[in-house]
Specification:
alpha/beta; 2-enoyl-CoA Hydratase, Chain A, domain 1; two-stranded parallel ribbon; 10 helices; 240 residues; single chain; 6-stranded mixed sheet
């Protein structure tokens, strides 16, 4: 599709792979490429498999954008990311996420929004580390986490920035299953193939019923917090 995100539809399964050649930072460019890939999957009415590159699902939002202190660029990146996570949460066809390694916050948000999450075992970290690096966890991220994570783990990761190894991430609710890294592709593909037998209109209707409150809460958090004015005012206050 482009150098950041590839797209391949085979037998009703859309394989979307993130690979920026480094750590899959969720820059505005990466996020736009992911939106375009999900546009195609929605048009194709395909089951989605979403994966990262070897050893890294995503390192999360691009910290250099925050450091540059451009309200426009911060808003652009955060809004694209928030809307993508919400889109996955409400996506009309099943999404299987293959967590190929580390998943820092925006990557973790995508796991929280996906339907089935399979993680590769290994020396990887998954979670919400914002407070450990001087950033508040965004409201939309907390709402995503609230509807998937075990409460005790949610408080640990959100309030302390603790990151979890894959097995603990599964116990927390970031993942549904952990498999040896060499078995990840086959495991994800088997699940996606099984999901091709799902009646898609029934899946979409049930997802809307099951996640209706969470979808509304995420949308409300986005509209309340992820605005250009909010980031402009924050930068002005920090410079005062």
């Amino acid at each position: 599709m482009n150098q950041l995100v590839s797209y391949e539809n085979a037998g009703g399964i859309a394989h979307i792979a993130m690979d920026d050649g480094r750590v899959n930072v969720m820059s505005a460019a990466m996020l736009r490429a992911l939106h375009a890939a999900f546009d195609r999957a929605e048009r194709d009415k395909a089951i989605v498999v979403l994966k990262g590159r070897e050893n890294i699902f995503s390192a999360g939002f691009d910290l250099k954008v925050f450091q540059a202190n451009s309200a426009h660029d911060i808003y652009d990146m955060l809004r694209l990311g928030a809307e993508l996570a919400l889109r996955l949460l409400a996506f009309p066809t099943p999404i299987v996420a293959g967590c190929t390694g580390h998943a820092f916050p925006m990557g973790a948000f995508l796991l929280l929004a996906s339907d089935v999450r399979i993680g590769a075992d290994g020396p990887f970290k998954i979670g919400l580390n914002e407070v450990a690096i001087g950033i508040s966890v965004p409201g939309f991220g907390l709402e995503l986490a609230r509807q998937r994570l075990v409460p005790a783990f949610l408080h640990r990761t959100a309030l302390t920035g603790e990151m979890f190894a894959p097995q603990d991430a599964a116990a927390a609710g970031f993942l549904d299953r952990v498999v040896p890294a060499k078995e990840l592709d086959a495991s994800v593909e088997a699940i996606a193939q099984a999901l091709t037998k799902v009646h898609l209109p029934s899946h979409a209707a049930t997802k809307a019923r099951l996640r209706g409150a969470a979808i509304a809460a995420v949308r409300q958090a986005i509209e309340a917090e992820v605005t250009f004015e909010a980031y402009r005012d924050r930068i002005v206050r920090s410079a005062a």
